[in-house]
Amino acid sequence: MINVPKILLIYTGGTIGMRRDYPSGSLKPFDFQKVLDEIPELRLLQCDIEHCAIARPIDSSDMHPQVWIEIVEIIDQKYHSYDGFVILHGSDTMSYTASALSFLLQHLDKAVILTGSQLPIGDLRTDAKENLITAIQIASLTTNGKPSIREVCLYFEYKLYRGNRTTKISAEQFEAFDSPNYPPLITSGVHLEVQTDILLKNMGQLPFKSYKSMECSVGILKLFPGITKDFVEAVLLKSDLKGVVLESFGSGNTTTSNWFIDLLEDMVNKGFPIVNVTQCSGGEVSMGVYGTSVELKRIGIISGKDITTEAAITKLMFLLANDPGDYQHLKLKFEESIAGEIS
Ligand code: ASP
45 lies in which domain range? Predict the structure, then answer.
């Protein structure tokens, strides 16, 4: 008998696992045990598919770091029994989950692919079938007998992306995700076009390692013209946060008001991590290019470079929980890549 890859589908909820209740028109979860009946084409794939679900499948807007840990525990326990994993997830927070998992599951030697859909599996025009079938096919791909993809990815609408580079860009289009600072790893047309050179490589052949904690006391502070001292103080001083991602303008620029710079400097001197990421969907933070970021560089604000906000906030959660150290240590760790999330 020929050995076929074994793939585990992990169902977490989202539109992909819902059915339209035609009398009312509303979306309701369907019994995921029946996934093979919903998509009989899955039986034609050259792999063994098994499935399981998290304890309480959710709309991904209810996603929480505890659920990320639940997913990590499933993969950790079943890591050696399967050749690849496909996670079915709502699209709303899929980029956050993909980013978090890329830090929590390190040195993978098989694929972990998140996918979902804009329309439920039973809808006539659903995008769920293509997304699910191709995600499974990609998770089953091998090169010289080993899984070709060895990282956490997101598959949607004919493209496989590095998960921690993605962001949700549309609540309407089937093309719901983009990866503005890193090209797709695979494009699905008549053939699967794999960009071998840009895949994440576990060069040192380090053994798979999973982590099971995240620090939730973090926040995102998005700047806007006219932001008040009161508001920034409420976020930085009057909360119990352990670190903040600062969404700045353009290439990492902020207001130069003295109250703002002084407050940031005080926080950094107290060892409070502030990560500078850009509000722009593409491009990177480069402090010092404009006069409006020179002070941030002098203070020692952490540069998020070309990281997405989704990857920045989950990386901060991860580092604060799993790699404690002083401010300089955290800065150093943040500014280097863990799983290809930063250039
Ligand atoms: N609200 C849904 C979710 O994120 C949307 C989707 O599945 O695409 O769970």
Answer: 6-210
